[in-house]
Design a protein that fits this description.
Blueprint lengths: L1 H26 L6 H25 L2 H4 L2 H6 L6 H13 L11 H16 L13 H30 L6 H33 L5 H39 L7 H18 L9 H8 L3 H12 L3 H17 L9 H7 L5 H12 L3 H7 L4
Length: about 375
């Protein structure tokens, strides 16, 4: 009994710390990223509430007031969606259709709605619910499945979206986001173990619950503090862009989004391999004005459109020069393949960017 009181105090302190961290995140001055902070704060609040329910369960509060059991059931379904919204907000906007991630939570709440509205102390309380014996176990399992799903989904989402992020500040933020997703994945694995223990070891020592809960708390609050820092990096990035675009027709958020779209389009479609490729074509393909493309490349990369395009061409030429398929092909012909309209232009740009000639580069690099 004494140990239970000690652990109760420990986890109550953890829950309070979570609410305090959430408050710090939600109230800090971060004008450009209020939505990012909101989703991180909501994620931490949800877990802190879950922690309070765990403490209530260990102290038999659910047996005395069974309504808490049904209030708790859908809440873990918010963890994955809120963390997804948080991560997505770094790459773009959270839009109306993203509400689909809340559908499982909403459905479970609707399922319990008759009980919430008609709750009484009768022993036959579950008669207000349809097929509780079956769906009760399903909902408990669904919570863990949801967390596992988002641990995988976030890795996939991150892997796709990170390719369009190129700035130094974004790179630092991406490292933190990757670590956050990794911690969430470890948390999901611990949650799976917790589910297995509860379903297969009905009389297991309560110390196992405490140990698993402590592990889960460590990972969740690690996510919170890492997320706090990631948002700070994002704020620095926005300030950097704001200074860069002061006096420009583009605001900081527009500049960040448009630049990402331009680079992503070039890297995915490789239109620069066309020797007649012009800024007007890139403008048509991305629906970004030629003026803004030129402004973004000049102010952010300190390069002209021609510099950027020929830089991509040289990178592709380097790849071809070290490819087994091009081993016996004339070096000059590779210049044509990557979009240059003459050997002399190709040699000139190659020497300018790499410091050596195409032939020497090919000679000094092994084939894949």
């Amino acid at each position: 009994m004494g140990n239970l009181k000690i652990w109760t105090i420990i986890f109550l302190c953890i829950a309070v710390q979570g609410f305090f961290l959430s408050f710090l995140i939600a109230t800090r001055k971060n004008q450009n990223n209020k939505q990012i902070d909101f989703f991180l704060s909501a994620f931490i609040v949800v877990f802190s509430i879950i922690m309070l329910f765990w403490v209530g369960h260990w102290n038999d509060l659910f047996n005395e007031h069974s309504i808490f059991t049904y209030i708790y059931r859908p809440i873990p379904l918010l963890l994955g969606p809120f963390l997804f919204y948080y991560v997505k907000r770094f790459f773009g906007k959270v839009i109306l259709k993203d509400v689909i991630h809340l559908v499982p939570f909403i459905l479970i709440v609707l399922y319990f709605l008759p009980l919430y509205l008609n709750f009484n102390t009768s022993e036959d309380i579950t008669s207000l619910l349809w097929k509780w014996d079956i769906l009760g176990t399903f909902i408990a399992t669904l919570n863990t499945v949801s967390i596992l799903f988002y641990s995988i989904y976030l890795f996939v989402f991150y892997g796709i979206r990170r390719k369009s992020q190129t700035s130094k500040f974004k790179y630092e933020t991406l490292k933190l986001l990757r670590l956050i997703i990794t911690f969430f994945s470890v948390f999901s694995f611990v949650a799976l173990i917790n589910l297995w223990v509860r379903m297969t070891l009905s009389n297991h020592p309560i110390i196992i619950d405490f140990a698993l809960a402590l592990l889960i708390s460590l990972f969740i609050y690690a996510i919170g503090y890492l997320g706090f820092n990631a948002s700070s990096f994002m704020q620095n990035f926005d300030k950097n862009i704001s200074k860069m675009y002061s006096g420009s027709s583009l605001n900081a958020n527009d500049a960040q989004l448009l630049l990402s779209n331009i680079i992503s389009h070039l890297e995915q479609h490789q239109s620069y391999l066309n020797e007649d490729y012009k800024i007007s074509q890139l403008s048509n393909e991305t629906n970004i004005s030629s003026h803004h493309i030129s402004e973004l490349l000049n102010k952010y990369y300190k390069k002209s459109f021609s510099d950027v395009i020929n830089g991509y061409r040289i990178e592709e030429a380097k790849r071809l020069l070290t490819s087994e398929d091009y081993r016996n092909k004339k070096v000059s012909s590779i210049g044509f393949d990557v979009g240059f309209n003459s050997p002399s232009t190709f040699y000139s740009w190659f020497k300018k960017i790499t410091g050596t000639s195409p032939a020497n580069f090919q000679k000094n690099n092994s084939f894949h």
